[in-house]
Amino acid sequence: MMKKIPQDPAMCVSFVNTQLRDGFSDLDEFCREFEIERAGLEDKLSEAGYAYDRAVNRFK
């Protein structure tokens, strides 16, 4: 069963950042676990003004 992430961009970035902080070493690991395409997630959050920062492992 595919795990779900929130669709609202503000809720999504909060959820993803919490998951990255608490349980994943990087965005690729998160995307594998949640069975989502990294590019699609980054595009969605980019449209809301967020970009992934690898150095701190979170979207800003």
Could you characterize the architecture of this molecule?
The chain is mainly alpha-helical. The chain is built from 3 helices and 2 strands, in the order αααββ. A two-stranded antiparallel sheet has the order 1-2.
Q: How large is the share of residues in beta strands?
A: 5-15%
Order of helices and strands: HHHEE
Q: Outline, from the CA principal axes?
A: globular
Number of strands: 2
The biggest sheet, with number of strands, parallel, antiparallel or mixed sense and barrel status, is: 2 strands, antiparallel
Mean pLDDT, nearest integer? 94
Distance between the termini: 29 Å
* Helical residue percent band: 55-70%
Keywords:
55% helix; 60 residues; single chain; mainly alpha; globular
Chart the SSEs and their pairings:
Elements (H helix, E strand, L loop, with lengths): L8 H15 L3 H8 L3 H10 L4 E2 L4 E2 L1
Antiparallel strand pairs: 1-2
Summarize the structure.
The protein is mostly helical and 60 residues long. The chain has 3 helices and 2 strands, in the order H-H-H-E-E.
